[in-house]
Amino acid sequence: MTTKILISRRSIQLLRILVSGIFLIAGFNHLLNVEKTAQRIEQASFKGIAYYFGEPQWLIILSGIVMLTAGFIFLIGYKTKWAALILMAVLIPITLTVQVGQITTLGPLFKNIAILGGLLFFILNDTDNLLK
């Protein structure tokens, strides 16, 4: 049995806009500060995860492009489920590499967990059809 829950369209739009902001800023940051970001990976406890996927500088540039592209698509509300899936696919390895295992970064770790929750909302709910 499916239960319908009424949700304000405006709240869905605001959630999407606010969640997309972190990816747009992070995407620009990755592209503008490749070396600084690579140093953060090098200092991470689980840097091996990044190296498993390839050369960190290449991954930083690629993730920057993906975060900007999918972040913008998510921002404008086009194919939000797919954009959220792509953003989640980028966020999980970044979180595992940089935040997990860093006692000083529990705040950013739980920030990323909260962002994952926001992305899951759009993955699990057909919000594209709610807004039309």
Automatic annotation (TrEMBL):
Tagged with keyword Protease: no
Pfam families with a match to the protein in the record: DoxX
InterPro entries for this protein: DoxX (IPR032808)
UniProt entry keywords in alphabetical sequence: Membrane, Transmembrane, Transmembrane helix
Compartments reported by the entry: Membrane
Glycoprotein recorded as keyword: no
Superkingdom assignment: Bacteria
Membrane association type: Multi-pass membrane protein
Transmembrane regions: 12-32, 57-75, 82-100, 106-124
Name of the protein this chain belongs to: DoxX family protein
Organism, as annotated: Arenibacter arenosicollis
